């Protein structure tokens, strides 16, 4: 069976998507420190060139700049951990002050259960009483699993240290030997691919900048909505809390929920249900606005159609998890760059 010419570009595109997904998956799984090394080396290149103009050798300038960056990162991590430790210590010292409040809430909870029990059939109450031990066991298991989760994360700390060391070394060598690495690739690859790969490199650079710009825009929008909502509700430290929630919006897994959810639960437990609803409304508006604007903002900054950007984000999240929020559009951009450079034939010829 001979494939018609008009279907060949579509076949090439499908194969390219599969290959790009496999390559990105394997790279993220096994070579992530080196990927970050390339990105960091690329980001510090303007500083390295500036240092070279000051007659500082690339070997030394790359090392000095990277040491400064990683020292700052480690300082921020240590400062954050120490701050969290101090705050937890304060929390432990003030917990006894909330004993009476907790005791009162527990009494209210028992009274509410008693009032509700009047309207519950006797069979249901008997079932609940007979299975109360199972409920306690479930809660105990949940707490135990939570602590196991925390301990497992602590076990990962040595792995994180190794990851940072390899990322630092990769960044340094990629930055120091940039020209040698590029010359090696040029010798290995056919001459006909040099220009195409240069075009892909330029397009990926512009797309990377566009992706960062898109995330900054989304964070600014989320921050503005949060601050405005806090000011409307006359929340104490509205500006500071809004900025913190906005910065947390960078985190793909937790985001501002690290602030909102515990706050909402605390308000409900302390009886401020109406205020908890207002805070929940702000949280839902922030999350909803981000989800609505995400595809449009990312697509416009990457030069992708909003529908294509939405599909890329969805498929990226389904395949890679939360990292797919960035990797999905990135794969789409790589394929587009390959089409523009001629490595992949276009679907239609103009």
TrEMBL record:
Keywords on record: Membrane, Transmembrane, Transmembrane helix
GO cellular component: membrane
Record flagged with keyword Membrane: yes
Membrane topology: Multi-pass membrane protein
Localisation: Membrane
Main location: membrane
UniProt key word Transmembrane: yes
One GO process term, biological-process aspect: transmembrane transport
The organism's place on the tree of life at top rank: Bacteria
Family in the record: Belongs to the autoinducer-2 exporter (AI-2E) (TC 2.A.86) family.
Protein name (record): Sporulation integral membrane protein YtvI
